[in-house]
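Colleagues,

For the teaching module next term, I've prepared a clean inverse folding example: a structure given as tokens, and then the sequence designed for it. I'd like students to try predicting residues themselves before seeing the answer, so please don't circulate the second half yet.
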């Protein structure tokens, strides 16, 4: 099956400091890398972004790869690590996951290892001893380890042909997950007798973070690639729902996808606990994960989710970094996150195997208020001057605006995200061609809109703001316009205003009109915890003849009320390729995978990805050679699991 690609390598201009590194004839080349990719990972070829990074590293150049979750960043250093002589070091902040990452490697036949605090001192010594003896090709370490004298002494005894810095955005204070220990990486690299090529990888796309990475890690003229951020297999949806309706919506959503794995993100621990308990009452078993739980409890939740023992994970954003469970079929957001960066990273944990998956964001006004509150009241990062703190806040406000814009837009959601990351959606190719008119696979592209004329309401809003001279927020204005008898209105004498009781729209609708007016600069909404509504620079527009104003609303009154589900319930075929094959067989292979994984104490996705299972269903291999053709089947996998899977498939075929 062809992998759909959309990468646009940006090579540094030739001659601009590009060092001419010639390797001797024995040095590994791209052909060796390609052979290793096939042999150990079962992939016929590199994806464009991977090829670019691997090529740079084999030439001895530093590299910086910015690729979305699911792009296959680990291959970028694992394959060079395999083909280059010596021990490749991988620096990663994800201590709790190193064990899994290494087990995946070992299952593929690669000699991997890790060093971190989950090992006893004696175990650590053994690992280092074996590493010196040349037992391993790849070693994962946490950044804290780099300054440890014992580790430095160990490093001096091995040949290190490559250093990979995973989750490289952790070095930047402008990123989401700043880790001070990442600042030590540069010193470590510079302390080495022979500085090997360094590759930094991240999914964070913003320019500022990218620049920080190159500077703070001390990359030298890195070959840089930013791959397309489109994730064609993800279907995006946004629904505005009052908080009390959200959990019912979530239960409905899960009920239709009971066998699938999914993550639900909430912004607070309290909501995580509430939602997980509520789901349990609905007969949906879910584990939870947040920073208020003990490390043990978190670990256990994570295990049960990764091992497919429990399909649903309810979590705060504390969960997920580095989780490479590839068969997460949906990511729901119970609240709106604080930025598109955060949203895309979390939602992007769906469908890493490239199979169709869904990302649905539920939001309400309260979510925006909560985010505003955290920006204004939340202490900015410690150690910043007042001026710096203000700058950070204004960056955060702008990021929040971007997020709110996503929730409100009635245009293609995918185009919105790509535009946010600086890509022109009309140039993005989909399997069906360019998507100039929308992607056809998001709730806005799939939804029908009703257009409601709200010209009079819009005018009333503007006169009200003029009359109260920008003293109030949205809800108060809605109260005044709707003629509310609330105490706060009457006591302040607002019922005497000429705009009092001027409209008959619902409060929600008045607020939507205000927001839309603000988006068009006719009104303006202030920053701060209690944002007030003032006039915008284009306020005079309402006084002009022919002014008209309308709201677009997704039509919800049809039987298939939710465009998001309507397409999903049409079955996997709505997504094209995944309809191939037989779903009974898929379930059998899935069960077999689970048995094999449990027997070895490894996560099922390590045995085979969902994509590999689907490909087996499509191809129904009968021989070892045919089995090797399956996406994700390398020699080691064939040796390890070939017979078992082939006989399951044969049994299935004979029973038909
Ligand atoms: P990232 O770390 O960038 O989020 P992963 O390394 O988890 O991505 O890889 C995502 C998925 O893509 C994995 O399921 C992996 O097996 C698959 N993959 C990686 N490289 C290739 C390739 N060259 N061909 C096909 N599938 C690939
Ligand atoms: Zn779309």
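(Answer key — instructors only)
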């Amino acid at each position: 099956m062809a992998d759909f690609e959309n990468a646009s390598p940006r090579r540094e201009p030739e001659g601009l400091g590009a060092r001419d590194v010639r390797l001797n004839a024995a040095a590994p080349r791209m052909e060796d890398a390609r052979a290793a990719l096939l042999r150990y990972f079962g992939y016929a070829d590199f994806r464009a972004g991977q090829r670019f990074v691997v090529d740079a590293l084999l030439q001895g150049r530093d590299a910086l790869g910015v690729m979305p979750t699911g792009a296959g960043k680990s291959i970028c250093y694992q394959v060079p690590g395999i083909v280059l002589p010596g021990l490749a070091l991988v620096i990663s902040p994800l201590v709790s996951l190193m064990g899994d990452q290494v087990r995946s490697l070992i299952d593929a036949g690669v000699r991997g290892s890790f060093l971190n605090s989950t090992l006893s001192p004696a175990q650590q010594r053994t690992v280092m001893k074996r590493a010196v003896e040349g037992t391993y090709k790849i070693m994962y370490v946490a950044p804290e380890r780099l300054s440890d004298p014992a580790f430095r002494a160990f490093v001096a005894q091995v040949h290190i042909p490559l250093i990979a810095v995973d989750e490289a955005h952790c070095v930047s204070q402008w990123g989401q997950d700043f880790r001070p220990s990442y600042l030590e990486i540069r010193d470590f690299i510079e302390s080495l007798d022979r500085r090997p090529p360094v590759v930094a990888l991240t999914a964070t796309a913003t320019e500022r973070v990218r620049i920080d990475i190159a500077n703070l890690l001390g990359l030298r003229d890195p070959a840089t690639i930013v791959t397309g951020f489109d994730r064609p297999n993800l279907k995006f949806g946004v629904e505005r729902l009052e908080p009390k309706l959200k959990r019912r919506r979530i239960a409905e959503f899960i009920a239709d996808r009971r066998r699938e794995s999914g993550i639900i993100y909430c912004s607070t621990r309290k909501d995580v606990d509430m939602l997980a308990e509520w789901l349990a009452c609905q007969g949906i078993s879910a584990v939870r994960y947040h920073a208020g739980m003990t490390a043990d409890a978190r670990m256990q939740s994570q295990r049960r989710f990764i091992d497919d023992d429990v399909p649903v994970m309810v979590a705060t954003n504390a969960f997920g970094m580095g989780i490479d469970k590839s068969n997460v079929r949906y990511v729901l957001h119970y609240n709106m996150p604080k930025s598109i960066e955060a949203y895309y990273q979390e939602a992007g944990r769906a469908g890493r195997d490239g199979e169709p998956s869904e990302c649905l964001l539920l939001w309400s006004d309260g979510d925006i208020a909560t985010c505003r509150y955290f920006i204004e009241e939340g202490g900015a990062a410690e150690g910043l001057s007042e001026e710096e703190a203000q700058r950070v806040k204004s960056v955060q406000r702008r990021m929040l605006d971007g997020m709110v814009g996503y929730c409100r837009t009635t245009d293609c959601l995918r185009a919105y995200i790509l535009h946010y990351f600086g890509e022109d959606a009309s140039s993005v190719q989909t399997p069906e061609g360019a998507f100039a008119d929308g992607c056809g696979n998001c709730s806005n592209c799939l939804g029908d809109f009703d257009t409601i004329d709200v010209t009079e309401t819009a005018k009333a809003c503007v006169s009200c703001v003029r009359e109260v001279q920008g003293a109030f927020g949205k809800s108060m204005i809605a109260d005044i316009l709707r003629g509310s008898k609330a105490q706060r209105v009457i006591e302040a004498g607002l019922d005497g205003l000429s705009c009092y009781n001027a409209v008959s729209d619902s409060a929600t609708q008045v607020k939507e009109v205000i927001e839309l007016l603000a988006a068009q600069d006719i009104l303006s909404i202030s920053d701060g915890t209690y944002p007030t509504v003032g006039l915008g620079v284009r306020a005079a527009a309402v006084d002009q003849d022919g002014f008209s104003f309308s709201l677009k609303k997704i039509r919800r009154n049809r039987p298939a009320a939710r465009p998001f589900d309507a397409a999903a319930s049409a079955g996997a075929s709505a997504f094209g390729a995944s309809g191939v094959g037989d779903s009974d067989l898929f379930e059998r292979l899935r069960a077999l995978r689970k048995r094999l994984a449990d027997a070895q104490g490894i996560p099922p996705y390590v045995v085979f990805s969902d994509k590999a299972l689907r490909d087996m269903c499509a191809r129904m291999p009968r021989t070892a050679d045919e089995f090797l053709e399956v996406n994700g089947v390398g020699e080691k996998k064939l040796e390890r699991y070939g017979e078992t899977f082939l006989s399951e498939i044969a049994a299935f075929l004979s029973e038909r």
